[in-house]
Amino acid sequence: MTLAPPLDSNIISSLKTGDRVLISGTLYTARDQAHKKLVELIAKGKKLPFDLNGQIIFYAGPTPRKKGSLVGSIGPTTAGRMDAFVEPLLQNGLKGMIGKGPRSQKVKELLKKYQAVYFLATGGVAALLGKCVKKSEMIAFPELGPEAILRIEVENFPVIVASDSNGEDIFK
Amino acid sequence: MREINSSKIKETIAKLLTKAACDLPKEVESAIKISYKKKGISNLEKSILKELIDNINIAREEKMPLCQDTGTATIFLEIGQDVHIIGNLYKAINDGVTEAYKNLRKSIVKNPLSRENTKDNTPANLHIDIVPGDKIKIIVLPKGGGAENASFLKMLLPTASKEEILNLIINYIKENGVKACPPLIVGIGLGGTFDSVATLAKKALLRPMNIFNKDKKIANLEKILLKKINETEVGPMGLSGKITALAVHIEVAPCHIASLPLAINLQCHSHRHKEATI
To answer: Using the beta-carbon criterion (under 8 Å), do A100 and B269 form an inter-chain contact?
Structure first.
């Protein structure tokens, strides 16, 4: 099965926990500090650096790219650290998250409530995943260094549906 | 007395860290390959282990970092007492880190609260031992943040039984192992003090994979733990399965009559380390 964001409600409801999916299209990277900043902007009613509608956030901070290459190594960081920031982003249209490791019960309920999905990517295979990235551009928070928000274009990026919009969870 | 210029230390550290990021030690690679060939593992487990093997090959061939988290530059120096170092040792070490991390992710912030990036991955997390001889042994262990976050320290009662200690370790990994990117290498420190037990657990990671402790009683505990941890069925990436740990190493140290310090330092499957003697 292949996916291309933006994700609509038909796609979301068709994704079931355990499904293996290839994503081709746009992802936005954001880690801990970027989440803190995004949620602060939402709280202040300010404009976000990108439109969240239907989009997927990838919990990642890549290595620098080498001369002549498109991107460095990239892979998921522990998703649980972002749990507390998930709801405001879902309220603003976010439909997918890619990370590693389990989520809180609260996040699973939010995925059901806002009809969104949490995907797993394998941790520690960042050279392999880096090969799927075809384009990368920094779009916000350059001061965060490796935690800046990037817009990346991926091709056949492999993920597993970990928590679907029915509240099912791959981590029992 | 043998003189070693600090520039030699800088160069060696830069070279070792650069290599460690992209070239997984063969012993770790073979442990993963042996797991992949094990009978009775699920298709999902097999496919994740295959990704790890493919990743090792791409990283080595294309000199791409194995993991985006190129870690805290953890460095162990064993300095021969007959060595005279010319120049500033600490500066040389951090200059070596700066050099290596030009092309790696800079994951260190200046202050835990202000969170401003140091932009060169310094300072190194440094451990120095003075040993006999006129050489310097340098070991680098770039350590990822996720596995480090999932590590553990507890001051146990000195009357704790072996079973209690083993159960605590097994249950801890059952609950938390998933966060450290399994299959894991488990470093355990037993004894010492509050501060030294954590270093002991980290040093346990440096022992060659599955070379058991020289003390047969401790070696026996390592074997029991490896078996029991794999029976937790946490599995690769926590998606359940038979392969949760690749190795368990325990190091012990003398301790106070009132104490029994325990530290568990978890290491992800991307167990990157390199060493050289100058």
So the answer is: no
The residues of A annotated with a catalytic role in the active site are 35
Could you tell me the maximum CA-CA distance found in chain A, to the nearest angstrom? Answer: 44
- Two tokens, residue B272: 């990157």
**How many CA atoms within 13 Å lie on the side-chain side of A120?**
30
From chain A, pick out residues whose CB is under 8 angstroms from the CB of B105.
Answer: 61-64, 72, 146
Query: Residue B236's closest CA among A101, A32, A154, A50?
Result: A101
A127 vs B48, B62, B117: nearest CB: B62
CB atoms within 10 A of CB A142: 9
Closest to A61 (Cβ–Cβ): which among B62, B105, B178? Answer: B105
| Segments making up each domain of chain A, as ranges | 2-163
Count the residues in chain B.
278
Backbone angles phi, psi at B35, to 5 degrees: -60, -45
A 10 A CB-CB count for A49 gives 16
Residues of chain B with confidence (pLDDT) below 50: none
CATH for B146-270?
Answer: 3.30.1330
Q: How far apart are CA B267 and CA B224, in angstroms?
A: 19
Complex ipTM over 0.85 = yes
B176-208 pLDDT per residue, tens: 999 999 999 999 999 999 999 999 999 999 999
From chain A, pick out residues whose CB is under 8 angstroms from the CB of B52. 122, 124-125
DSSP code for B170: H
Of 1.25.40.10, 3.40.30.10, 3.20.130.10, 3.30.450.40, which CATH number belongs to A2-163?
A: 3.20.130.10
When scoring B32, B50, B174, B237 by the number of chain A Cβ atoms within 10 A, the one with the most, hence best to mutate, is: B237
Question: Cβ of B65 and A73 within 8 Å?
Answer: yes
**Per-residue pLDDT at B26:** 97
